[in-house]
């Protein structure tokens, strides 16, 4: 699986020599986590417009792992922060004191779009 990810990402980026894919074991023995690190100039290429490229890579890896009877996740390491880009399931809670941009008032009437 690691070689599949390396092959896909190396053929997308401008600096294939700096592509590093690491494999991490998780508490769940059937789940493997893959982390992709690329040159800072190539992060946008791997993410793609509206995240389409990284979503496609995740889908390919998911299908390949299902065929092997396992599960796998793929995350891209952000070069500046070292954090991963993940596919969030829920939106974060708004910070205290942030303006209400929900578009409805207390009666439920839509007042913004």
From TrEMBL:
Q: Mark out the compositionally biased spans (Polar residues).
A: 101-113
Recorded GO cellular component terms are: cytoplasm
One molecular function GO term is: RNA binding
What HAMAP family has UniProt attached to this entry? KhpA (MF_00088)
In UniProt terms, what function does this protein have?
A probable RNA chaperone. Forms a complex with KhpB which binds to cellular RNA and controls its expression. Plays a role in peptidoglycan (PG) homeostasis and cell length regulation.
Q: What are its GO biological-process terms?
A: cell wall organization; peptidoglycan biosynthetic process; regulation of cell shape
Similarity field: Belongs to the KhpA RNA-binding protein family.
Q: What is its main location?
A: cytoplasm
Subcellular localization is given as: Cytoplasm
- Species in which this protein is naturally found: Candidatus Collierbacteria bacterium GW2011_GWA2_44_99
Q: What is this protein called?
A: RNA-binding protein KhpA
* Subunit relationships: Forms a complex with KhpB.
- Tell me what gene encodes this: khpA
Concerning InterPro entries, the annotation shows: KH_dom-like_a/b, KH_sf_prok-type, KhpA
Q: Which CDD domains match?
A: KH-II_YlqC-like
Q: Using the UniProt annotation, give all residue ranges assigned to the region (Disordered).
A: 75-113
Print the keywords alphabetically: Cell shape, Cell wall biogenesis/degradation, Chaperone, Cytoplasm, RNA-binding
């Amino acid at each position: 699986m690691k070689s599949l990810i390396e092959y896909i990402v190396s053929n997308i980026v401008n600096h294939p020599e700096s592509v590093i894919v690491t494999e991490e074991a998780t508490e769940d023995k059937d789940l493997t986590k893959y982390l992709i690190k690329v040159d800072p100039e190539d992060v946008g290429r791997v993410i793609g417009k509206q995240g389409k490229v990284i979503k496609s890579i995740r889908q390919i890896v998911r299908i390949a792992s299902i065929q092997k009877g396992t599960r796998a996740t793929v995350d891209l390491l952000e070069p500046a922060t070292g954090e991963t880009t993940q596919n969030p399931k829920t939106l974060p809670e708004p910070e205290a004191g942030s303006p209400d941009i929900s578009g409805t008032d207390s009666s439920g009437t839509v007042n913004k779009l």
